[in-house]
Write a structure and sequence with these properties.
Blueprint: H1 2-20, E1 34-39, E2 42-47, E3 55-56, E4 62-66, E5 77-79, E6 90-92, E7 118-119, E8 132-144, E9 148-152, E10 159-165, E11 173-179, H2 182-186, E12 206-207, E13 220-223, H3 226-233, H4 240-249, H5 251-256, E14 258-268, E15 287-292, E16 294-297, E17 306-309, E18 312-315, E19 321-322, E20 328-329, H6 358-361, E21 393-394, H7 396-401, E22 415-418, E23 423-426, E24 433-434, E25 440-441, E26 445-447, E27 459-461, E28 469-474, E29 480-482, E30 486-487, E31 493-494, E32 498-500, E33 504-506, E34 521-523, E35 527-529, E36 534-535, E37 541-542, H8 543-547, H9 564-574
Parallel strand pairs: 11-12
Antiparallel strand pairs: 1-2, 3-16, 4-8, 5-6, 7-15, 8-14, 8-16, 9-13, 9-15, 10-11, 10-14, 17-18, 19-20, 21-22, 22-23, 24-25, 26-27, 28-29, 30-31, 32-33, 34-35, 36-37
Length: 582
């Protein structure tokens, strides 16, 4: 009886464990870089792919606000309560700790009541936009492993952009747009992550899910990392082998979840209505109580430990690798080109260790340069071979021995000798590089100034906006060549006098200089909506004039010549000071 009970309990435990375990053990956590095993030759090291544990990365970041003086409290000011936007007797005072709301309160422990939060100044300078950039920097490449979660103590903003950088804040790419009206704010159709698929998982979307206005019970904004993982690993992330395979073979997918910096661009605070209440501007501000970013140091599967020392994160590299991201081979271990580790095969992956250079093992034959195999040209006298462009591919071992002649900075392991030019060139450059030594970037990419030449991220995609740029290429600083009326590093912004409509188009009308006349209203800067009696680009013509039916009794006739209605504006333009004599 006891045995049957034990077996029943054991079966129940196995069932529950299989349901609750989101990452089955056979997939491995890659938490060991090497282990000793016994072979016929005795004890040897068995190397495996490895990576640091995922952790809360907000403990290691630096935060920067732009403008720097946007935090409330200097000078002290009052603002309205969160629950009652018309009870405006709360105070923010930077000189009083109990009333101050500095940026570090976005990252402190949130177990206290009431919660602590950073807060911006109020929208007292309306209609000037209230905009804030919050930049989170790690000075290290990190890989995101869980959703980014931002908790607002105020209403969630009406417009916001989450951006990422892969080059330490030098250039930025959008991660996701947030708005109460995506079409109006960003000229994008609203979508959610559920609308994506494996093939469109890298699409940058605008979502309206998290911008519901001034509601105290709607505080959280997500950037969904796990939902994107689920397109490859399944709803419960059980098929991690599929995800690992995709991350191994698709660099753009791996880069999508990799950042050095994040930037939260707050563009418009929660209004809650169609119009801004100009009599109660202390209602409008930004307040964030918590930001969660989970991830791990990127160590290219060559380390399990990432140390934080002197305010800097660094991988403790294994597999004879070195560098902040374990991104190159150590000296005397360059017998083959550096390569990142691989998640596959499950569960141990492939270490791709750096091996000793041949020169460090023995004394190989000396060559002045890499000569082609002339005997393969099938001639009796090699001296009679006419000079011509002859390509001879050499092996990666020869490349390692002849770095003076064949150096590809780890972006290729093949070289060719050009007899006519008496030089060696790299063949099949990877990582979006090109050139004799793979030292240049392909068209459509530009040089990452913060990366070494042997870094696989040395070339960054330009991401020129196809509607706003002349072509998909950019200069050495990442700036694209913009079409007329367009500006911005990626040509995704319009110059004054232009509005975005499938690219920047000149304004037909606006509310500043190009006013619609005769009671017309400007619609999206592209046309005037005229009253029934008027027509023309700016509603400047009577409709009856086009039909030739204007008359004194039509009700639409033009004012008679010499009437005061025409002469008064004319006199004003000419500066006439005396009476008109009419």
């Amino acid at each position: 009886m006891y045995l049957s009970r034990f077996l029943s309990i054991h079966a129940l435990w196995v069932t529950v464990s299989s349901v609750m375990q989101p990452y089955p053990l056979v997939w491995g956590h890659y938490d060991v870089c090497k282990t000793q095993i016994y072979t016929e030759e005795g004890k040897v090291w068995d190397y495996m792919a490895c990576q640091p544990e995922s952790t809360d990365m907000t403990k290691y970041l630096k935060v920067k606000l732009d403008p720097p003086d946007i935090t409330c409290g200097d000078p002290p000011e009052t603002f309205c309560a969160m629950g009652n936007p018309y009870m405006c007797n709360n105070e923010c005072d930077a000189s009083t700790p109990e009333l101050a709301h500095p940026p570090e309160l976005m990252f402190d422990f949130e177990g206290r009541h009431p919660s602590t939060f950073w807060q911006s100044a109020t929208w007292k300078e309306y209609p000037k936009p209230l905009q804030v950039n919050i930049t989170l920097s790690w000075s290290k490449t990190i890989e995101l492993t869980d959703n980014i979660v931002i908790t607002f103590e105020s209403g969630r903003p009406d417009q916001m952009i989450l951006e990422k950088s892969l080059d330490y804040g030098r250039t930025w790419q959008p991660y996701q747009y947030y708005a109460t009206d995506c079409l109006d704010a960003f000229h994008m159709d609203p979508k959610s992550v559920k609308d994506l698929s494996q093939h469109t998982v890298l699409e940058i979307i605008c979502t309206e899910e998290y911008s519901t206005g001034y509601m105290t019970n709607s505080k959280i904004i997500h950037f969904e990392i796990k939902d994107r993982f689920a397109f490859f690993a399944g709803p419960w992330l059980r098929n991690m082998a599929s995800l690992y395979g995709q991350l191994d073979t698709t660099k753009k997918l791996r880069d999508f979840f990799t950042v050095t910096d994040l930037r939260i661009r707050l563009l418009r605070p929660a209004v809650g209505e169609i119009f801004v209440d100009e009599l109660h501007l202390a209602r409008y501000f930004y307040a964030i109580s918590d930001i969660k970013v989970h991830g791990r140091c990127k160590c290219n599967l060559h380390a399990t430990v990432c140390v934080y020392d002197n305010s800097k994160l660094t991988c403790e590299c294994e597999h004879n690798t070195t560098g902040p991201d374990c991104g190159k081979c150590k000296k005397n271990y360059q017998g083959r080109p550096w390569s990142p580790g691989s998640y596959l095969p499950i569960p141990k992956g492939t270490a791709n260790t750096c091996i000793p250079s041949i020169s460090s093992i023995g004394n190989p034959p000396k060559f002045n340069r890499i000569w082609p195999n002339i005997s393969s040209l099938e001639v009796s006298n090699p001296k009679q071979v006419a000079p011509k462009l002859a390509l001879s591919t050499v092996s990666s071992v020869q490349v390692a021995n002849h770095k003076r002649d064949c150096e590809c900075f780890g972006h290729s392991n093949r070289c060719s000798y050009i007899d006519l030019l008496n030089t060696v060139i790299c063949v099949s450059c990877k990582h979006n590089t090109r050139g004799q030594h793979c030292e240049l970037c392909r068209l459509g990419y530009f040089r990452n100034a913060s990366a070494q030449l042997d870094d696989e991220n040395v070339c960054i995609e330009c991401y020129c906006n196809p509607l706003g740029s002349v072509h998909d290429r950019c200069n050495g600083s990442g700036f694209c060549e913009c079409k007329t009326g367009t500006t911005g590093p990626k040509c995704d912004e319009c110059l004054p006098g232009n509005s975005w409509h499938y690219g920047c188009q000149p304004n037909v009308c606006d509310n500043e200089l190009l006013h619609c006349q005769n009671g017309g209203t400007c619609h999206n800067n592209v046309r005037c909506l005229c009253p029934a009696a008027y027509t023309g680009i700016l509603c400047e013509k009577l409709r009856c004039e086009e039909a030739g039916s204007c008359g004194s009794d039509s009700g639409q006739g033009a004012p008679p010549r010499g009437s005061p209605a025409l002469l008064l504006p004319l006199a004003a333009l000419l500066g006439t000071a005396g009476p008109l004599g009419i």
